[in-house]
Design a protein that fits this description.
This protein is an alpha+beta fold. The chain contains three helices and six strands. Helices cover 27% and strands 30% of the residues. The strands form two sheets. It has a four-stranded antiparallel beta sheet. A two-stranded antiparallel ribbon has the order 5-6. Strand 1 and strand 2 (48-53) form a beta hairpin. Helix 1 packs antiparallel against helix 2 (57-71).
């Protein structure tokens, strides 16, 4: 099971994770908190059931800033990133039976939950041989002024 999260970068394989911890620290120092909006459910190929995260201007800035920092380290964006990025919160992944997919589609897809919460932390997740774990979490210190 994955820890709950919104991925702002698709997974990459690295040898020296400490270099990327520093990038995370730099990204958190330059970022400001902002509101994350969630609206509705969806699937990726009947294998991943997720909450849809609205692609906001602030989220795209954070995403593009990270891509830029990684590009300086020689890591090019994936073809599903940038304008193609689909922000989401995974609820079930890979081991979903066909019957469970049918139940989810019937009972959840028609619903359009609307939630929002402030983005306050950034993290690096690391894959073990069986699942993702939180490797490092950093707080975003700068608060966005309330409107």
């Amino acid at each position: 099971m994955n820890p709950p999260h919104i991925a702002i970068k698709r997974p990459i394989e690295v040898e020296n994770i400490e270099k990327y911890e520093k990038i995370l620290d730099k990204l958190a120092k330059s970022a400001k908190t902002f509101k994350i909006d969630i609206q509705g459910y969806s699937f990726f190929a009947d294998k991943t059931f997720f909450l849809k995260v609205i692609k906001s201007k602030e989220l795209m800035i954070l995403h593009n800033n990270l891509l830029s920092m990684l590009k300086q380290q020689g890591i090019a964006p994936d073809n599903l990133e940038g304008d193609n990025q689909i922000f989401h919160i995974t609820l079930a992944n890979n081991d979903i039976s066909t019957k469970f997919v049918e139940i989810l589609k019937k009972n959840y897809l028609p619903k359009k939950p609307l939630y929002n919460f402030p983005l306050k932390e950034l993290a690096i997740l690391r894959y073990t041989s069986t699942h993702w774990v939180i490797h490092k979490i950093v707080s975003i210190k700068q608060m966005t002024p309330q409107k």
